[in-house]
């Protein structure tokens, strides 16, 4: 046992001696790695990140809420199982996969913190994004060497599901900077946005949250809004029919006020009954319209802003010092493995 410990000590001393004898490798590789890592990480544009969260209202009663609370501790969401919505809140993050939903963000107004940029989000991504020097360099070479293709015929209108190559690149860039998440237990929806400007980052988070609220409201009230439009149309037609019947009855009654013949009286009664039937139909449809409007109002969700988007103070990435330290550590390990390769393999 003592011989084994002595041999291990000698081996450790031998390896340290070999490392010391090869210190020139460290003195060359580590400074070079440090410089290259600094050039790389300091060339990357800095990005800021902010998050905003909201919670849609829950229409369940107290008993259902209690059951939901118990189920949430086990990872289940009773609201999704018992709700009328076909789209579960857990599917909201998948909205970023829809080109139509992402394309609505093109028109967002953004303004930079230095007031030098005040334009749409689409124009901002096209003209005001910073890139690493090598991306600009090789991108310029690619554009210079690529064959200029004749411009495609201009389409009538904008179709988010038939994008050009440049438009698809912008859509992908938006997806990379915006993320949705839903807490399975609490149902809280979070929107996380990253951007190169802190004020634009905050503005985008608010705009995306508002767009998501609008989408959820439109979806949850779509059937109720169709019902309201349907009953409003029927009520308008019934009112027009009733007013026409009332006009006919009034004109006939005025024209035959002094007539005592039974045939005229029967005709008057028939017109009055017809007018009353049409009034009853109009009144019933009007009541149904009022009920549909009340149901629509009930279906409109109310959102509670749990956490508002704040203007970030410090950039979130790249982690420059961490990256440089990681590169130096990896180079040190590689140098050590190269110097001690015979001892390691032997």
Name the overall outline. Answer: elongated
The share of residues in helices is: 55-70%
Largest sheet: 4 strands, antiparallel
* Number of separate strands: 6
Main sheet: which strands, in order across?
4-5-1-6
Describe the model.
The protein has 346 residues and is an alpha+beta fold. The chain folds into three domains: 2-42 and 324-345, no CATH class; 48-129 and 159-221 and 304-313; 225-298. Helices cover 62% and strands 9% of the residues. It has 13 helices and six strands. It has helices spanning 2-21, 23-43, 62-72, 78-82, 99-103, 121-127, 133-145, 165-177, 198-220, 222-255, 262-299, 320-339, 341-345; strands spanning 48-56, 109-111, 118-120, 178-182, 189-195, 303-307. A hairpin with a 6-residue loop joins β4 and β5. α10 (222-255) runs antiparallel to α11 (262-299).
Question: Which helices and strands, and how do they pair?
Answer:
Elements: H1 2-21, H2 23-43, E1 48-56, H3 62-72, H4 78-82, H5 99-103, E2 109-111, E3 118-120, H6 121-127, H7 133-145, H8 165-177, E4 178-182, E5 189-195, H9 198-220, H10 222-255, H11 262-299, E6 303-307, H12 320-339, H13 341-345
Antiparallel strand pairs: 1-5, 1-6, 2-3, 4-5
Brief overview:
The protein is of the alpha+beta class. It has 13 helices and six strands.
Please tag this protein with its features.
alpha+beta; 9% strand; 4-stranded antiparallel beta sheet; 346 residues; two-stranded antiparallel ribbon; single chain; elongated
